[in-house]
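[recover] target loaded
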């Protein structure tokens, strides 16, 4: 590593590397052209009692790989993020393998296209990743909620899919339908065992946004409950 990371990361790169390799905080290249390796001994993960089908996020301070190792060493199941869309893309699965070595019990992916997550999961299998992976579904039903997601480094929304939702006479219904389709496709990727319902969802207030996410979660559960008996018969 040359230079210093403005987030003081030791085991970078973080998920905010811009598409041109630039740092998300300062106007310099990211100081981690390749992911740092976990140099400590392997820490056995503390298995989860159950892998959640649905997860939603609460933003907090960014932490590093070392916190996962510390948590696992004292018996706490550690969840770690990874960003398939951020450079260096082909090494992101390798980076997740480092986090697994450090004791991570479950991974949550930042949002990316279904095709990209499929490629990432194939890379992850080759890199030896065996922990459960939760993929993110982007939920937007209006211009502000779509713009907030699109503006984040390391997060890619299909502009045509966004346009179709926003141009629909009922963008809330269209946004829910698009998110449900994406959820179905993501759960079909080998190794993806759950979903993080992500994004602001709506600019019409927290309560309405929470209702949108709850409605999506209910649809995903309904589909899952409907599919399980059908798959067994
Ligand atoms: S992009 Fe690279 S240099 Fe910038 S904060 Fe993230 S890890 Fe640090």
């Amino acid at each position: 590593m040359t230079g210093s990371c403005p987030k003081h990361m030791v085991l970078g790169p973080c998920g905010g590397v811009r598409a041109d390799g630039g740092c998300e905080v300062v106007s310099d290249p990211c100081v981690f052209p390749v992911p740092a390796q976990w140099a400590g001994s392997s820490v056995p993960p503390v298995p989860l009692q159950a892998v959640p089908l649905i997860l939603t996020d609460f933003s907090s301070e960014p932490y590093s790989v070392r916190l996962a190792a510390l948590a696992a060493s004292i018996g706490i199941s550690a969840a770690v993020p990874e960003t398939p869309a951020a450079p260096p893309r082909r090494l992101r699965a390798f980076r997740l393998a480092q986090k697994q070595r450090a004791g991570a019990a479950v991974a949550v992916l930042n949002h990316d296209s279904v095709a990209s997550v499929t490629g990432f999961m194939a890379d992850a299998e080759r890199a030896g990743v065996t922990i459960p992976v939760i993929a993110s579904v982007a939920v937007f039903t209006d211009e502000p909620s779509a713009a907030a997601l699109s503006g984040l480094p390391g997060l890619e929304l299909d502009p045509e899919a966004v346009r179709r939702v926003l141009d629909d006479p009922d963008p809330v219904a269209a946004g829910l339908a698009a998110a449900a389709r994406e959820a179905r496709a993501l759960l079909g990727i080998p190794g993806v065992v759950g979903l993080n319902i992500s994004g602001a969802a709506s600019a019409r207030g927290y309560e309405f946004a929470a209702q949108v996410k709850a409605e999506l979660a209910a649809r995903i559960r309904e589909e899952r409950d409907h599919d399980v008996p059908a798959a067994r018969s």
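[recover] notes: Residues 5-7, 9, 12-14, 16-17, 23-25, 30-32 surround iron/sulfur cluster (CB under 6 Å).
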